Amino acid sequence: MVGAEALRQFGVTPSCARVTRQGKLITAAGVSAGIDAALMLVALECDRATAELMQLFIEYAPAPPFTAGTPETATPAIVARARAFPRQRSVT
To answer: What is the value of pTM for the model shown?
Structure first.
């Protein structure tokens, strides 16, 4: 998690979960994780069968072309590049 250090500065405990639920709050990180969160909300508000029906309707069956989706699965070079990225941008 590249931004984990920044989150800790605000008293947040980062999680590796795609979707996190704490009480009435649900958070998701990323585009496909947002779909995961939406399906979780449907399951909570309706039921699992309705959420699965919605998943089928949108034909959501993620199969990423690469394994660089987390720091644990990305190569060290890609992780280093991601960590350096904010420092590489120039402000004009």
So the answer is: 0.71
- Residue 69 one-letter amino acid: G
Report d(CA 28, CA 19) in Å as an integer: 5
Helix axes of 48-57 and 31-45: crossing angle, nearest 10 degrees:
140
pLDDT class of 1 with cuts at 50, 70, 90:
very low
CA dihedral 62, 72, 18, 86 (to 10 degrees): -100
Fold for 4-88, please state it.
Rossmann fold (3.40.50)
Tell me the percentage of the chain whose pLDDT exceeds 70. 91
Task: Indicate the average pLDDT of the chain.
Answer: 87
